[in-house]
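Quick illustration, no need to memorize.
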Amino acid sequence: MKSACSILFYWWWCCCSGQQTNTKNPCFGGIKIVENQEINIPFQGLKGFEKSAISSYIEKTDLAKNSLWFWYEPARIGKVSLLCKTQIDSLDLVIIRTNAGVACEEIDTKKAVPVFVKSNTNCRELENMKIDVETGYTYTLVYFTKEKEERNLSLNIDFQSVGKKGEELLDTLRLNLVYDKTKPVYSIHVLDQETKKPVSSRIVISSTLDLDGTYLASDLYMNIARSIKNGMIKVDAEGYLSRDFENHFFKTDGRKNTNDTLFLKKITRGTVAKLDKMYFQAGSDIILEESLPKLRRLRDFMVLNPSVNIEIQGHVNLDGSKKATKRLSKKRAYQILKYLVNENIPRNRLSAVGFGFEKPVFKDPINDEQKEENRRVEILIK
């Protein structure tokens, strides 16, 4: 007998945490920013005045040492908006540009180029600011606030591609596999759930016929001769929750063009996703073989989003003592953590907890289906 732990892999990714050692720049402790990922980190409450070379870029004699350093390396030419949230009313912000790979040296020797410098500002004033960025450079962002302040700063970079004339470009990648224009065309369009803009994604299609393939596109076009039932579409894009469309119906009447529009949700800190089709041996933490496809999807998601940390949360139904159910749920969560570590996911990106029956979907389950809903594994983006 198996116990299933459901997860809609209508997923997630969220956000960097200040504790991520693999995103640190070793020379000044800055945290790497990835587009569309939220970073939430507290100021350290340091006392005294800033005496490093960064202070030469801002005309303020009493610049506090209490600061947060970030660094960003764009993969494309474009503009970025810095979306920040904090209850702190007054911040000083310095943004400088250096050549990639020598940021520390150029900051120390004062060879960095100021991009944006503003004293006594706040997140509200900065929300409409756009900064031009280019590939091949490192952009260092330093936020200062008053000494002893220890409240959090939440930061997110919103990137917009631009063309040679400064015009905004959509993240569009059109892939046309149509070989016969006289036959019906089936197309897939991947869009951001909020902005409705296209998102270049990895699209994996599988079916019982010849529609199988892996493609990189935001808009995919191909011929389809007849309807196909029970297919599968898997969509992944960096910075977005992955989605699986199981038992998908590729529909056509043989005459008209058809399409599917698939929406992806950006990863945000605090997102909880349910890990679908996770099966354990009854009363045990042994993972059954049927769970491997979803575990591989989870592994792929972690590889695609190297800045994401997750907490694996185990839940069981009320079958046994409180202590026993909590112990079992934690052991099951830990087995998933162990699988990811064996697949070369860094251990410091993972944690496992067991809630037993503390957070049931159904408090008083009346049938086996509701009990199965209570037995689950969830993933929290930290």
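The first strand starts at residue 2 and ends at 5.
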